[in-house]
Design goal:
This protein starts with a strand and ends with a helix. The protein has three domains: about 60 residues, OB fold (Dihydrolipoamide Acetyltransferase, E2P), CATH 2.40.50; about 55 residues, DNA polymerase, domain 1 (Orthogonal Bundle); about 50 residues, Ubiquitin-associated (UBA) domain (Helicase, Ruva Protein, domain 3). The chain is α+β, with helices and mostly antiparallel strands and about 190 residues long.
């Protein structure tokens, strides 16, 4: 199993990163929270990984922290939660917020917050993850860039955008502006599409 990748960050986007190790480049799918933590391209990066074996091949997922990887594994252990949905959950809220939603039994908030998660799956998520999430040690702090992205997504949703369209617009804006963009820059760029 591939436990982590440690090498040069060749390329990054809000959905994936490419890490060069020796003469090989590894493409890993990442949540938005990991994208926020990545260094500039050309710099050294270390990503914790999860290797997923499928009938049609292998998929590699990368995470900035052990907490993100643990939450991803917990989420994909819930029936009906795909890897893509697990990444969306991690990109939609901080680990501290996710823990609070699960412990408070707020399945309705989760189903509105994450595209692809209906009331039934959100309810199952709350039921199955309450005990494991309760045992997680979660820090309330998160990167400033991650909070900015989440705030802009919430603002776009408040303006009438669907959650999926808002996430897509913010990811595109982050790709164009980089992770150092402030609220106003990110919102303006997201509204241009």
């Amino acid at each position: 199993m591939i436990e982590f990748l440690d090498g040069e960050l060749v390329a990054k986007s809000p959905e994936a990163a490419t890490v060069r190790i020796g003469g090989a480049g590894f493409n890993v799918r990442i949540p938005l929270s990991t994208y926020d933590a990545l260094p500039r391209e050309g710099q050294r990066v270390r990503l914790l990984t999860h290797l997923h074996l499928r009938e049609d091949g292998l998929s590699l997922y990368g995470f900035a922290t052990e907490l993100e990887r643990s939450l991803f594994r917990m989420l994909t252990g819930v029936s009906g939660i795909s890897n893509a949905i697990a990444l969306r959950v991690l990109g939609s809220c901080s680990p501290a917020e996710f823990k609070r939603l699960i412990l408070d039994g707020q399945a309705d908030v989760i189903s509105h917050m994450v595209k692809g998660v209906g009331a039934k799956i959100a309810g199952r998520m709350v039921l199955e993850l309450k005990k494991p999430v309760e045992e997680l040690e979660v820090q309330a702090a998160e990167s400033a860039a991650g909070q900015v992205a989440r705030d802009v997504i919430q603002a776009l949703v408040a303006l009438g955008e669907s959650r999926l369209d808002a996430e897509r617009a913010v990811r595109d804006a982050l790709s164009a502006l980089g992770p150092d963009a402030d609220h106003q820059q990110l919102l303006q760029q997201a509204l241009k599409r």
